[in-house]
Request: fold
Amino acid sequence: MRFPVAFVSLLRFDNNVRALARTVIAGGPDGRHPRAELS
Reply:
């Protein structure tokens, strides 16, 4: 069975959020706090 496209895109979105969180924890390119937890 193939994975649904929506499920795959959701996994990619989750990976992007985690990468963004790591960037924020590391200090980030700019010192702003993105609203990752609100979206």
